[in-house]
């Protein structure tokens, strides 16, 4: 048994009246010890569930993110006119609504606003449809790339994916514990505010419950990450809903935090979120948008794409963002970008083989 870890476990696991918060440094140490499995399996499971019950503080989350920076993968900075947008979405996937972020990523990359995504395979507790499978269905196999190749993809195409099982095996090793405790541990919280990119970043973090957003904002402030966006998105993702007013937080470079409420009706959009279909049908629905065909899914792509084109600085107004997003879809720019990404990955794999 790790005696050093035992003392940290005792602090968070002593019950509602006597448990204590960890300092940022202690949280970083505890996370490193878990990721490197210096703690025993019993200690790992106990810490995860105790920390969930206690609820992590912003200081603890900042420390956990420090550990991810220390041990995890990092794509190095590239030359870009815009900060690299990092979409941080729940790793346990989608079970009710169709993911739109692959279309948003293609749209941003098509206008040279780079995007980094990250995630893994189907993961507890939901085991929903993950981004990696959607991309695979679209003919983009991020799983086979080394981190160096993922770096090259970002530099060449403005789009890349950090794949947990291959690029961050220490974090992937925590997945069985997540399954066995049957609840989302704090690891699931830091994933929605983690950036595996070392350069100038625009972090986008999805959330469901307001306290999660509050902790995200406070944690990013402690880590001096002022430029970020929080989205009360579909199933906690970064996808803006059309069925309700979008609740968005705007972390500004000057350190200010603004609230933005967007009603789809105000911009001429219908209020319907495309439901999640069987996987083959879901891929076909996304592909139809990439092919430039009008649909309800295309409307969600324009709604999301227009907002992010504005937020990333490509468009000066929201209205201009929606106009540009529609143009990119109808004129086949998403199709061209997807083909470029497919060809670049094929070239990377050919070099390796």
UniProtKB/TrEMBL annotation:
The record's GO molecular-function terms, alphabetically, read: glycosyltransferase activity
Family annotation (NCBIfam families): PRK07394.1
Alphabetized, the UniProt keywords read: Amino-acid biosynthesis, Aromatic amino acid biosynthesis, Glycosyltransferase, Transferase
Question: Top-down, what is the taxonomic lineage of the species of origin?
Answer: Bacteria, Bacillati, Cyanobacteriota, Cyanophyceae, Nodosilineales
Task: Check the record and name the Gene3D superfamilies matching this protein.
Answer: Nucleoside phosphorylase/phosphoribosyltransferase catalytic domain (3.40.1030.10), Transferase, Pyrimidine Nucleoside Phosphorylase, Chain C (1.20.970.10)
Q: InterPro entries this protein is in?
A: Anthranilate_Pribosyl_Tfrase, Glycosyl_Trfase_fam3, Glycosyl_Trfase_fam3_N_dom, Glycosyl_Trfase_fam3_N_dom_sf, Nuc_phospho_transferase
Q: One Pfam family, please name it.
A: Glycos_transf_3
PANTHER family per record: ANTHRANILATE PHOSPHORIBOSYLTRANSFERASE, SLL1634 PROTEIN
Q: What is this protein called?
A: Anthranilate phosphoribosyltransferase family protein
The record places domain Glycosyl transferase family at: 95-333
Give start and end of each Glycosyl transferase family 3 N-terminal domain.
Answer: 7-69
